[in-house]
């Protein structure tokens, strides 16, 4: 491997590497992508289908203007006439009305039970006695005010007729001089005047009602003739001194609840202001809430024209005398052609359905992010030199591109099949809206990804969120929006939840499209945004601000909690702090605490410590790793004492050395490695890798570091070659150097032949994954490599192969290797350290260790139980210094001091023994590393128990 990538990879090289990896990854997920894109297609098709069904229904005769056959032959209709007269109530709305009927004008009056009477909550005493409500004879109160009372009185006397005129040969003309009133509610057109159809009584208003107070006359409406009955209703005009009094009384009479005693409705109020002989200046109170709420459309007519004519007529009579009349003969709607009932389902359901479609992307982005977190791939990439900038840029840009394509498909397809929801509204507004929203959604996914560590939980939560948001939006939030009495401020607060702002935006689109379709105009335009009832502007502003905020916050959280070298929450202030002048710092004087430790250290360990101190004072470039009294203490939790994982480790590792770390499980090896690779921060002490401090310059260290973690961190759907290409690019390998390095690397770990390199890593056996991990850790010529049990799970052949790779690799770099295999440690490592309970127990090369801790032969003999004593006495006789270290059911182990033992005499003794009793097996062995390990670990633990 001579492809030295001396320079760390630039921002764009890293970005390029990540982008290529992501694209390959996405290509593998083609099925998921297709399914994702299909979702809006299917939903749009479903809507189209439903729309067709609705259209089909509405196309039936039931909803068309009614017709009748005028000429038929043999059951065949030859001539048909259609019109309102042949229609039922469902049909009549669709009929052509070429010549709308004329209706006598009507004044709105309160129903008898609601008319104003004197009551305790009203101070005015001139109102009628409440007893009139029992027989429905309450007068209709009208209030008057103005600057000149005598003038006002003249006017209102002119307004209220004193007799009822009826010329049956000219009904309309004579009704114009009368004043008709009705308590029926108004419709939204004047094709039908509900006063004559609602079944409620029609009144004629008089100053005073006489005994015989009911009239009946024929009313001709087009071709219909109805016999209309009218009843007398008395009008009570009351003078008030100021407009505020009128106002107050109207206000107090407002219907609150349904208790009749609390209601005091007044038909109308007139303020004559400064009117006099020369000035006509009047303002009128009328009740615009008198409309039929059961109708679909909120627009309804209020019967105002009659009120205006009434007072105008009175003024004219005041000026010109009682014979002058300003007649108001009829009201008539504009003609209209036959219309079709239209019902745009897509626009109506749009809010809910499309919320789901757009939100659908959220779980996709979230799970993808959480996957990399759960599999620790993010940290793995970081450890191999991927910095945060390229990671964020590419991941964000990548999801943005995915979302844009998705939304584009959605809008294009919806428009293609002609859904009004898309075609009616201005596309530029739609683009801006969706663009801002998907950005917000991606930022939100980044933010939430930090709260999940498990893909399944994230997926389930996200989907519950998606469907819940849609339903809550459709069945709760929408009612708040429609309810005009719901405070707008609270709507804004609700819209701070992105799901609701999305819902609101889509709702506005659907409303605009729906009414645009119904009124045959366009939907939303930019100009409509300034409309106060249009919530789009607020939504756009809220989403934009939130996007910026969430993005910043997500980046911040990521930096503080996720990034390998857990940064301080105020990392962004780093620029203001003073940078260390030299990477190596002088050993601090305040080390008295650790001196205690030194006294307990074995000579080899304290020698290493002294070497480190020396190195810190006079740094040399030859040292790859220098650990200076590194400590890690986990704080006590739930009443447990603090856990000392690493208790002051000092270690110096020159280039080209492979250091093996042995130790029983839980000794603190992994804690040590985690500190070195930046997963956790040391509690105290530090380490320098290539002269860079792990506490402050982890990012720099990452560019020249390789890690083979204990558990393989691989993308299931990427091949071995793709993994190596990706990490190679991260290490700044390019072009032919890259291909060559990858190929060599694959060959060296035996993954090159038989197409293994191009199989998905998910399909690899455990051993293959292991080898790939080792190859990854070595690619791009890192200066320092950490290998956590690299050969676990390998067959002997691959293991030997792997050892060769590591042996070759250690020539010019430092390797720290943890292992449980003594054989491996002996073969690979130049030096070994045995790590027990957080501290090094011994350090040295394997031979030294064996000499120091071994120095004995191990003699083993197996006999039957009853001869155990014989064996023991035989050994004691031979070597009085022998020590029994082990015995179980006839098998005994003795340590014999090396300097005394002569192998020939041992053989001889065994021969003699065999003659005396049966020896099933025996052996004599030199100490192995294993024996050293067991001994050191045992002694350390015994010491631990003592202290
Ligand atoms: C009030 O109106 C009456 C009738 O028009 C008029 O005679 C009188 O002068 C007016 N009073 C004032 C103060 O303008
Ligand atoms: C009634 O109306 C008809 C037609 O306008 C008119 O000829 C007749 O004189 C009117 N009758 C009275 C009593 O005003
Ligand atoms: C409101 O309209 C419905 C149908 O259009 C009608 O049945 C009802 O009587 C109306 N109510 C009033 C108070 O006019
Ligand atoms: C106006 O009409 C509505 C609906 O009929 C009624 O509830 C309300 O009390 C009326 N307001 C006044 C001031 O009379
Ligand atoms: C009508 O009355 C209002 C309110 O008092 C007043 O501001 C306005 O000037 C008057 N108009 C005329 C033409 O006098």
TrEMBL record:
Localisation: Membrane
GO cellular component: membrane
UniProt xrefs under SUPFAM superfamilies: P-loop containing nucleoside triphosphate hydrolases
Domain ABC transporter residue range list: 625-862
Main location: membrane
Protein's membrane topology: Multi-pass membrane protein
SMART domains to which the protein is assigned, alphabetical: AAA
Alphabetical keyword list: ATP-binding, Membrane, Nucleotide-binding, Transmembrane, Transmembrane helix
A Pfam family assignment: ABC2_membrane_3
Membrane-spanning ranges: 36-54, 345-371, 391-419, 431-452, 458-481, 539-557
InterPro entries cross-referenced by the UniProt entry: AAA+_ATPase, ABC2_TM, ABC_transporter-like_ATP-bd, ABC_transporter-like_CS, ABCA, P-loop_NTPase
GO molecular function: ABC-type transporter activity; ATP binding; ATP hydrolysis activity; lipid transporter activity
Family of this protein: Belongs to the ABC transporter superfamily. ABCA family. CPR flippase (TC 3.A.1.211) subfamily.
Protein name (database record): ABC transporter domain-containing protein
């Amino acid at each position: 491997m001579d492809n030295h990538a001396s320079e760390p990879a630039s921002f764009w090289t890293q970005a390029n590497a990540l982008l290529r990896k992501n694209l390959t990854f996405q290509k593998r997920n083609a099925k998921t992508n297709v399914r994702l894109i299909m979702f809006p297609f299917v939903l749009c098709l479903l809507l189209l289908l439903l729309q067709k069904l609705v259209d089909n229904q509405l196309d039936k005769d039931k909803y068309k203007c009614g017709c009748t056959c005028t000429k038929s032959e043999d059951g065949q209709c030859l001539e048909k006439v259609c019109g309102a007269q042949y229609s039922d109530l469902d049909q009549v709305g669709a009929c052509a009305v070429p010549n709308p009927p004329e209706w006598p004008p009507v004044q709105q009056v309160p129903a008898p039970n609601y008319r104003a009477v004197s009551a305790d909550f009203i101070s005015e005493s001139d109102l009628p006695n409440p007893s009139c409500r029992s027989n429905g004879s309450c007068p209709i109160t009208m209030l008057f005010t103005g600057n000149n009372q005598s003038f006002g009185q003249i006017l209102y006397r002119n307004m209220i007729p004193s007799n009822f005129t009826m010329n049956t040969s000219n009904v309309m003309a004579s009704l114009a001089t009368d004043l008709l009133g009705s308590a029926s509610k108004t419709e939204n057109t004047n094709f039908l005047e509900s006063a004559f159809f609602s079944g409620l009584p029609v009144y004629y208003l008089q100053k005073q009602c006489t005994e015989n107070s009911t009239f009946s006359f024929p009313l001709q409406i087009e071709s219909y003739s109805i016999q209309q009955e009218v009843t007398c209703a008395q009008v009570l005009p009351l003078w008030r001194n100021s407009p505020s009094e009128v106002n107050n009384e109207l206000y107090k009479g407002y219907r609150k609840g349904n208790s009749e005693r609390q209601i005091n409705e007044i038909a109308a109020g007139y303020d004559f202001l400064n009117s006099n002989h020369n000035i006509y200046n009047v303002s009128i109170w009328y009740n615009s809430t008198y409309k039929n709420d059961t109708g679909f459309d909120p627009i309804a007519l209020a019967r105002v024209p009659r009120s205006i004519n009434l007072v105008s007529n009175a003024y004219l009579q005041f000026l010109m005398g009682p014979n002058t009349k300003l007649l108001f003969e009829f009201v008539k709607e504009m003609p209209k052609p036959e219309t079709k009932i239209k019902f745009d389902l897509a626009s109506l359901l749009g809010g809910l359905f499309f919320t789901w479609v757009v939100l659908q992307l959220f779980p996709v982005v979230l799970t993808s992010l959480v996957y990399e977190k759960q599999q620790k791939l993010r940290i793995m990439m970081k450890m191999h030199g991927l910095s945060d900038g390229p990671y964020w840029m590419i991941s964000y840009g990548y999801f943005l591109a995915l979302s844009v394509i998705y939304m584009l498909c959605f809008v294009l397809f919806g428009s293609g099949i002609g859904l009004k929801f898309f075609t009616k509204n201005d596309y530029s507004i739609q683009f801006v809206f969706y663009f801002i929203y998907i950005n917000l959604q991606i930022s939100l996914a980044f933010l939430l990804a930090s709260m999940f560590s498990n893909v399944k939980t994230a997926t389930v939560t996200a989907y519950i969120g998606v469907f819940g948001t849609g339903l809550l939006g459709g069945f709760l939030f929408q009612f708040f929006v429609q309810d005009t009495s719901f405070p707008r401020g609270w709507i804004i607060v609700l819209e701070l939840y992105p799901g609701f702002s999305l819902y609101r935006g889509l709702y506005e689109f659907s409303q605009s499209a729906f009414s645009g379709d119904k009124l045959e105009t366009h939907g939303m335009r930019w100009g409509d945004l300034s409309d106060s009832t249009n919530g789009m502007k607020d939504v756009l502003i809220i989403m934009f601000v939130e996007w910026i905020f969430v993005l910043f916050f997500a980046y911040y959280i990521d930096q503080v909690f996720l990034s390998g070298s857990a940064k301080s929450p105020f990392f962004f202030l780093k620029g203001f702090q003073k940078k260390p002048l030299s990477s190596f710092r002088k050993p601090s004087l305040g080390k008295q605490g650790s001196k205690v430790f030194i006294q307990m250290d074995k000579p080899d360990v304290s020698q290493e410590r002294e070497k480190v101190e020396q190195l810190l004072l006079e740094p040399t470039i030859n040292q790859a790793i220098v650990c200076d009294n590194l400590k890690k203490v986990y704080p006590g939790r739930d009443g447990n004492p603090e856990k000392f994982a690493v208790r002051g480790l000092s270690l110096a590792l020159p280039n080209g050395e492979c250091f093996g770390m042995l130790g029983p499980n839980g000794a603190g090896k992994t804690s040590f490695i985690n500190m070195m690779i930046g997963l956790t921060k040391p509690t105290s002490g530090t380490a320098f890798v290539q002269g860079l401090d792990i506490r402050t310059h982890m990012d720099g260290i990452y560019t020249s570091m390789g890690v083979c973690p204990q558990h393989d961190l691989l993308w299931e759907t990427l091949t071995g070659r793709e993994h190596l290409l990706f990490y190679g690019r991260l290490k700044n390998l390019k072009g032919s150097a890259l291909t060559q390095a990858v190929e060599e690397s694959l060959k060296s770990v035996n993954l090159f032949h038989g197409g293994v390199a191009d199989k998905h890593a998910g399909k690899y056996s455990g051993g293959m994954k292991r080898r790939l991990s080792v190859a990854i850790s070595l690619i791009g010529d890192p200066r320092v490599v950490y290998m956590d049990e690299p050969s676990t799970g390998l067959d002997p052949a691959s293991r030997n192969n792997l050892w060769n790779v590591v042996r070759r690799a250690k020539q010019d770099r430092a390797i720290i290797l943890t292992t449980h295999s003594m054989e491996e440690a002996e073969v690979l490592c130049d030096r070994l350290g045995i790590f027990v309970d957080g501290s090094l127990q011994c350090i040295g090369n394997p031979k030294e260790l064996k000499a120091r801790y071994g120095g004995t032969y191990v003699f083993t003999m197996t006999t039957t139980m009853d001869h155990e004593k014989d064996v023991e006495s035989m050994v004691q006789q031979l070597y009085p210094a022998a020590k029994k270290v082990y015995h179980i059911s006839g098998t005994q182990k003795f340590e014999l001091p090396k300097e005394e033992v002569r192998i020939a005499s041992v053989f001889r003794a065994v021969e003699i023994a065999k003659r005396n009793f049966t020896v099933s097996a025996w052996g004599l062995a030199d100490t192995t590393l294993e024996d050293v390990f067991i001994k050191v670990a045992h002694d350390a633990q015994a010491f631990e128990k003592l202290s």
